[in-house]
Amino acid sequence: MLFERLPHLVNFAQMERNANPSEYDLLIFIPSPTGDERRTVVVWMNEGFEESVAFCGWHDHAFEDGEEEIIDTVEAILADQAVVVSYSDGKFAGWLTLIDLTQDDILLDILTQKYAAEAIHVQTWSGKGDRVVTLDQLELE
């Protein structure tokens, strides 16, 4: 399904033998145009059933809507709509989360939640939307 919707990704796919010598895992490594290896989007399927996506230190394998949600997530990351946010300080310092920038006021919501950080770091696949965001900056916009 992923290759049907994003056919160019087949160029980044490879198969790797897993613990069972007769089985292979599908791995897709989509490099960032920045050249930063941490920004490589990795999609993998272990033993044919556990799909996962990783980007900028974040990863998930609990996609409730299955393949469709995984494809949507990969597509959004490649479009810089789904970005990784890291918390610079506070109770959640160092935490990473993937957010959808198309959701209204998502950055404001993060910066005004209980135990909010003073600043959050936004990391995009292309690097073009990278920034540090504070509540003061959002209030000025």
What portion of residues belong to β-strands? 25-35%
Strand order within the widest beta sheet? 1-2-3-4-5
Low-confidence stretches: none
Largest sheet: 5 strands, antiparallel
**Portion in helices:** 10-25%
Return the average pLDDT rounded to an integer: 86
Distance between the termini: 40 Å
The ordered string of helix (H) and strand (E) elements is: HEEEEEHEEHEEH
User: Can you tell me the number of structural domains?
Assistant: 2
Helix count, DSSP H or I runs of 4 or more residues: 4
Query: What is the tally of beta strands?
Result: 9
Structural shape: elongated
The helix-and-strand class reads: alpha+beta
Radius of gyration: 17 Å
Overview of the molecule:
The chain is an alpha+beta fold and 141 residues long. The protein folds into two domains: 2-78; 82-140, no CATH class. The chain is built from four helices and nine strands.
What is the secondary structure topology, with strand pairs?
Blueprint: H1 2-5, E1 13-17, E2 24-30, E3 41-46, E4 50-55, E5 58-60, H2 67-78, E6 82-87, E7 96-100, H3 106-112, E8 119-123, E9 131-134, H4 135-140
Describe the structure in brief.
This protein is α+β, with helices and mostly antiparallel strands. Helix content is 21%, strand content 33%.
Name the features.
141 residues, alpha+beta, five-stranded antiparallel β-sheet, four-stranded antiparallel β-sheet, elongated
